Known about the structure:
Layout: E1 29-35, H1 39-50, E2 55-59, E3 74-75, H2 83-90, H3 92-115, E4 123-130, H4 134-150, E5 154-157, E6 169-177, H5 180-193, E7 197-200, E8 204-208, E9 213-217, E10 220-229, E11 244-256, E12 265-267, E13 275-281, E14 284-295, H6 303-316, E15 319-333, E16 339-342, E17 350-354, H7 360-376, H8 397-405, E18 415-417, H9 423-426, E19 432-437, E20 440-446, E21 452-455, E22 467-469, E23 474-476, E24 483-484, E25 490-492, E26 503-505
Parallel strand pairs: 1-2, 1-10, 2-7, 4-12, 10-17, 18-26
Antiparallel strand pairs: 3-6, 4-6, 5-6, 8-9, 9-10, 11-14, 11-15, 12-13, 13-14, 16-17, 19-20, 20-21, 22-23, 23-24, 24-25
Helix pairs in contact: 1-5, 1-7, 2-3, 2-4, 3-4, 3-7
Amino acid sequence: MKRDGATISIWQNNMPDYISQTHTLRAEIYDVLIVGGGITGISTGLLLQKAGKKCMIAEAKTIGFGTSGGTTAHLNTFMDSPYNEIEKNFGEGSAQLVFTSAKQAIDLIEKNIKEYNINCEFSEQPGYLFSQDKKQSKELEDIFEASKKAGCDVVYSDSIPVSVEFNKAVIFKKQAQFHPAKYLYALAKAFEDAGGTLVQGCRITGVNKNSPLEMESDRGKIIARSLIYATHVPPGVNPLQFYCAPYRSYAMAVTLKDNNYPDGLAYDMYDPYHYYRTQEIDGEKYLIAGGEDHKTAHKENTEACFTKLESYLHRYFDIAEISFKWSSQYFQSTDGLPYIGYLPGNPLNVFVATGYGGNGMTYSHIAAKVLTDMIVLGKSEYKKLYDPKRIKPVAGFTDIIKEAADVVGNLIGKWFPSSKINELADLAHGEAKVVKYESHSIGLYKDENGNVHAVNPACTHIKCKVAWNNAEQSWDCPCHGSRFDADGEMLTAPARKNLEKIDLREINE
Length: 509
């Protein structure tokens, strides 16, 4: 199972590539084209197909390639944006709707597991949220009261399942966990068995907003009456991207010498917070822990985030082995709730789901229900709550794009004499940097074999300058989270195109 980085997540281990039943495009008109084969796209496609719609899912790489393959797979009815904040920003009624939709999302996952007999280690778990100082304890009390009003089954607790010091703790009952890759593969098969079309290795490169919509892809033209972007953030340039900040989070799966694995989900209240749970796969137990979140491309040494997380875990756990470590990307909305519904600036048959924060597994199924209801019934009880059009237009949006495009010059068709670029000699194996040659910027990476890879570091989205992620060996954009491999091949939207490769030629003088 492939993923958008150099590290290997626990979910990829012993998981083969998913083999689609369809390998070529069909000359037909679809009711719905879904762009993106992660958990949002697959679960939405299955619901729509079951509702009688003819659906196609187009995945640029392979299903689960993005964040769905890098999640830590917590299923929560309480969110990264706690209910006291939701109540303050949106009102008590909206907080209740968030809880109701989250509960229905977990119910939908459990229903799918039972209906399709999916062996994905799903289990209901208590979720513990704990404070570690007086300020956090006061905030925890506020969260507790607002969560009760929203409908959560939450009580105070005098213990937590991890050996971390704490002041106060609450238990959110009826949370859950599962193996996301096993679940995703089973849902994809159910979607195809129901008549849906799933094409992997099919990148959408453009949209002609006719009626019906005409989508250009690197596999040919696709025609559909409706379009859903389930790509974590919509590709191309859209005001919505200025209201979603990209973040990276770090996770480890470790074995413990004393077998003292936590029974339940646990979260501290720092910013960024740490999170813990236990996962058993093929008879082997693992502690999965994560944290150290930061804005994408805003840390010079991302490998140090793993070192810091490992050091933190050694304080509280008797670690036998670090079996897996990986990082993953998510997008945080400006007001704490995701954007699910009509994509601003587009016709009313173009939909989006983005801005999940760290609750992607739950919000993916909220999105599946909301989008299915909007397309099939023309309405949803959650349409207003998650409406992307609640954002206000960005002042000077056109100027922002123009200015960003001027940040780094376009180098199309250029080649450079490698003998003239002094920094090549200074690069260690496995190191990368952006250097200047005359008036141009060049992104250089020297792999472990000593081969140098060169790209134009201007992100193909709106030309922000990318930065090297040494943990995942990728070029990451600090503006809107587009990511590319060492040779510039696109890994993550919103960019639609690869970085331009630069030809370094030796010159005999």
